[in-house]
Predict the 3D structure of the following.
Amino acid sequence: MASANILMENESQHILPKILPKLVIFDLDYTLWPFWADTLYDLNYKSDGKGGIIGSRSSDKKKLYKDTRELLEILSKAKIPIAAASRTDDPPMAKNLLKLFDIDKYFSYKEIYPGCKVDHFKQFHKYSQFPYKEMLFFDDEERNIQDVSLLGVTCVHVDRGITKREFLDGLNLFSRKENKK
């Protein structure tokens, strides 16, 4: 079980729990960014140099949710592998967005294709060799939470994108479940 002494700033300082997952998985659309990748039709997105991207029209700007980059960095510093699980109908666009937002470097595993999220998790298990009970998953769709939780994965529903609070709550939920064993 991994341990980290990384501080998070929120209303006050928080220390990550001592018992951490071996793999943290994030959905992409409406979990890390506030839009669906498969609804973007402008193939000319470029980095805006400020952490966002801009389309061919200057009014077409997209950003990550406010806490996304910081949370990925926290996991990276704690040496916890990160995975992306997305059911998008446009996998090339989702993969391109990871690169454009300069967050692709954080993801050790990517399962980005249409279908049931359970299939994504079977692949994560196969390639990482981590048991499902050692995984923590964040997603905005309740159906994905219900399906994946049946595998034994600790799942957290995020209503309007990942926040520091939801992230820490998810880590604490995982830690409490592991402490009971």
